Every structure is written in C-alpha cells, then in structure tokens.
C-alpha cells in the first residue's frame, strides 16, 4: 500500500490523500485498477472525517485505488471552487494513470450529503459553459460513474439550504441558489449512478434522491437506487467506526455490499 498527499494541479486550499495498491517486485503491482474519488459531506461548512477514511477502506478492500478530497468550505466554497478542485483531482489521476496504475476510463466519484452534491456536480456540470469558464482547462474531467449517499440534489423545498447557500454564494431563493439544483442539469452525458438514502432522513429529505432518479430515468441514464426505511442522516458506512452500532445501522450497512457489486459490474472489475 502506498499513501501520499498532493494538491491538485492549479488548485489551492485543498488536498487529496491517495491510497494506492502497491506490491513491490510483484506482477500484481502492474495490474491496472479502477479508482474512486471520495467527497465527504459537511454542508460545505466542514469536511466530515466519518465519510473519508472509513469509505476509502471500503473501496480499497475491494481492490480499488482510492482518493479522498479535502475541499474548500464556507466562504471559499463559492465560485465553483470545490468543483474545480474535484475536477482537477480527476484530471490529475488521468494524467498520472500510467504511474499510478489507474484505468483512466474507470474512475468513479463518491460523495455523501453535501459531498454527494459535489460528486453529482462533476457528473452533471462537467460540460456546463458556466463552470468551464471558471475552471479554464480542457482536461477530460467527466467521471465514469457516480456513487451518491443521501445527497443534496435539489434547489426546491426539499434541499439543504445551508449547503446550497454555501456553494452558490447566494441566499435562498436567488438565481445562483436555484442554479445549483442538479436534477435540472442531468442529460444524456451524465454517468451511471448508484444512490442510497433513508426514508427518515430529516436533514436532507429522501426526495433529493427520488428527484435525481426521475431526472436520470428521463435522460435514459442507468441508475440503481436504494431507499432504506429507517435511519437518520449521515450514517456513512454504518459501522461502529463511524459511531453507528444499532439494529438499524446493521441493516443499512447492506448498502456497501450493493454498491461494490454495482460498481464491479459497471467497471467489469474483479479484485
């Protein structure tokens, strides 16, 4: 295992922590692997540790290279800065694909809550002129798959107001605020998507995932959605490590198995 940190090219106020499979002197070391870029949640106010390394461990154990993005928050979250940072991270992975033994056509983004909004932003806004003018680069930044856990998606009455105000730089009801409702940006180029949510989520209502599913369906994009009946917001991988140790969390932890199986099928991957 090789672990290191780097700042995406041309970015500041962020960093990426990479976990690469490394087997010195072995044929396994030459194996090209898919990758997952993880965006923890935190309302664009902070970056949750509960949705960082515990999630990286999940995908690393399944044979994926993993990358955790610590992105800009609060005042530094506006003007597309977190999205630029994620886009640059994906571009860097593709740029270094040979050295890092990454399959550059099998890169997924995975996010939770506001991090789910960030991951979904790359999948829906990567070709938006408004974003590209700020990003200012022509790299291949489209993710090949999206994994969204209880994501912030909409800009209507079901959204998480703090998240959208922080990322848009606008107040509730403003044009900038509404523009960041991602279900309205889904099109034929949006990547295949896995989503999970709990019906009881009182922080980011389940309607966010339901509306995203409807938009994906209308655009003909393959997706898999799991709505679990019980559980609060922010359950991460649903284990003791993240403070979850109830019958509900044990039940909900099944999402991890479903997700790995889905991603393996999407990427035709066997660890």
Q: Can you give a write-up of this model?
A:
The chain is an alpha/beta fold and 271 residues long. It has a single domain, classed as Rossmann fold, CATH 3.40.50. 34% of the residues lie in helices and 19% in strands. The protein is built from 10 helices and 8 strands. Strands 1-2-4-3-5-6-7-8 form an 8-stranded mixed sheet, sandwiched between helices. The protein is globular, with a radius of gyration of 17 Å.
- Name the CATH class: Alpha Beta
How many beta-strand segments? 8
What fraction of the residues are assigned to beta strands by DSSP? 15-25%
**What is the total number of structural domains?**
1
Structural class: alpha/beta
Q: What share of the residues lie within helices?
A: 25-40%
CATH homologous group name: Alpha/Beta hydrolase fold, catalytic domain
Strand order of the largest sheet: 1-2-4-3-5-6-7-8
On the 0 to 100 scale, the average pLDDT is 96
CATH architecture: 3-Layer(aba) Sandwich
Number of helices: 10
Alpha carbon gap, first and last residue? 15 Å
**Element order, helices and strands?**
EEEHEHHEHHEHHEHEHH
What summary fits the major beta sheet? 8 strands, mixed
Rg result = 17 Å
**CATH-derived topology:** Rossmann fold
Question: How would the global form be characterised?
Answer: globular
Low-confidence stretches: none
